[in-house]
Design goal:
CATH class of the largest domain: Alpha Beta
Strand content: 15-25%
Number of strands: 19
CATH architecture of the largest domain: 3-Layer(bba) Sandwich
Number of helices: 12
Distance between the termini: 45 Å
Largest sheet: 6 strands, antiparallel
Helix content: 25-40%
Length: 453
């Protein structure tokens, strides 16, 4: 089977390597060149490349199940297995920069028999009588039986062959900066990113590989008074006053290794496989990763959901060629894969849409509606009051149970809320107070700084 994979991120390369190991001839094409032997690697086509990442336990489970040497080389490159106390090894996540993760994955892909990597632009999916016949790459035709689009949230290739998506802006924006612990300073370790919700915004610290960490401030996009946080002087001022961030952004202890990186225009989106704007479908064309489901990146679900999709799609493609003419069954594979995504991936999209909407309301000062479904983050917070909730909340947080599993303990969380308890905001400046601090310490009105969301 001749396969072209468009997009050489973690999901695209996982699909490519998995299929190559099953005997397929695979070409991977990506806008960006491969990593240089040394020095900085600039992935201009990947907005989130230098933004914070946390790789959840499902990432390890998928990798070890298909590409065990990838996990070993990630750890050898400095990635740190992240394990909650008392949990088995297979429940480990990974503390690692996206750049480290991709560099290691590319190095393994470059050694893979039956797989070739090409830098270029995929212009169009070619079809013949309703079946994929190839793609045009930089204007030249390349024949293929299967095309897998793993081009990320901004990818547009092949969209005429699939239904319109749904979703929209999640309502949050963020600013982040990466640091490295100075000599003699102990970097942080945590099985999950450290998180604190303040009145009006959220702060997080992501421990990473090789003594690095990322500090993140998430704000409602509508909180324009905090938009200047993307500027170094404002970010560093805010970090000094936010209790969670202050110890890990102390310039005497931690050296900044990036500028402040902004994330805006963030969305929750979901899009299926078959039936384009004209109702047409192309047998042999598949979409995977952020091309299917995008969620607010603050929860760190993207690579986890993408690798789960990649594992299922490659399983279906390999099974379709056993004992029958797999070329004739590609529409069936798309239908099976689309149904699987609707059952296993879409609930995470629905979960985040509701979570984000209700969190924005809470940050505005609204109370939790006890007659409406209780959002997942509140159910998990209620486990601190009623530990019986934790038996479901913990595997949900590790993405080992779907969001729908939380319904089993929702009434327990509602009972906690009916006592008058609410998830507390962390002690520290509110969003309005933080804006005032920025004004007082920099001598500039934050709202006057020319920034665009």
């Amino acid at each position: 089977m001749r396969t072209v994979v468009i997009g050489a991120g973690p999901v695209g390369l996982f699909c490519a390597m998995s299929l190559a190991r099953s005997g397929h001839q695979v070409l991977v094409v990506d806008h960006d060149p491969p990593p240089p032997p040394t020095g900085t690697w600039r992935r201009r086509g990947v907005m989130q490349f230098n933004l914070p990442h946390f790789f959840r336990p499902i990432v390890r489970q998928v990798i070890v199940g298909s590409l065990p040497e990838l996990w070993e080389e990630l750890v050898a490159a400095g990635g740190i297995p992240a394990l909650m106390e008392g949990q088995p090894e297979e429940s480990a996540g990974l503390l690692c920069r996206r750049s480290t993760f991709e560099r290691v994955t590319w190095s393994i892909a470059a050694r893979e028999t039956g797989l070739s990597l090409r830098t270029g632009h995929a212009d169009r999916v070619l079809t013949d009588r309703g079946r994929v016949s190839g793609v045009t790459l930089d204007g030249a035709q390349v024949e293929a039986d299967v095309v897998i689009v793993a081009a990320g949230r901004a990818g547009r290739i092949g969209e005429e062959h699939r239904p319109l998506g749904e979703g929209g802006n999640c309502g949050f924006s963020y600013a982040a900066r990466m640091y490295r612990a100075r000599d003699g300073v102990e970097p942080p370790y945590s099985a999950f990113p450290m998180n604190a919700l303040y009145q009006g915004y959220q702060a997080m610290v992501f421990p990473q590989d090789n003594r690095t960490l990322s500090a993140l401030i998430v704000r409602p996009t509508a909180a324009h008074q905090l938009a200047p946080l993307r500027r170094v002087e404002y970010f560093e001022t805010a970090a000094r006053h936010i209790p969670l961030l202050a110890p890990w952004t102390d310039l005497a202890q931690f050296e900044p290794i990036t500028d402040v990186l902004a994330g805006c225009g963030l969305s929750n989106a979901y899009r299926g496989q078959l039936g384009g704007h004209s109702g047409a479908a192309a047998a042999g064309l598949f979409f995977v990763g952020d091309s299917v489901c995008t969620t607010n990146p603050a929860a760190g679900r993207g690579v986890s959901l993408g690798l789960r999709q990649g594992a299922e799609l490659t399983r279906l493609l390999n099974a379709s060629g056993q004992g029958r003419d797999h070329r004739r069954d590609y529409l069936g594979v798309s239908q099976e894969f689309g149904s699987w995504c609707a059952e296993n991936i879409r609930p995470w999209y629905d979960d985040h849409v509701y979570w984000d909407a209700t969190l924005l309301a809470r940050l505005r000062g609204d109370d939790i509606d006890l007659d409406a479904p209780i959002p997942s983050d509140v159910i998990c917070a209620a486990a601190g009051v009623d530990p019986s909730i934790w038996g479901v909340a913990a595997p949900y947080l590790m993405m080992q149970l779907p969001p729908t599993a939380l319904r089993a303990v929702e009434d327990r969380a509602r009972a906690v809320l009916r006592t008058g308890w609410r998830p507390p905001f962390a002690e520290g400046p509110s969003g309005d107070e933080l804006a005032e601090i920025l004004l007082e310490t920099t001598g500039t009105v934050p709202g006057a700084v020319p920034v665009v969301d």
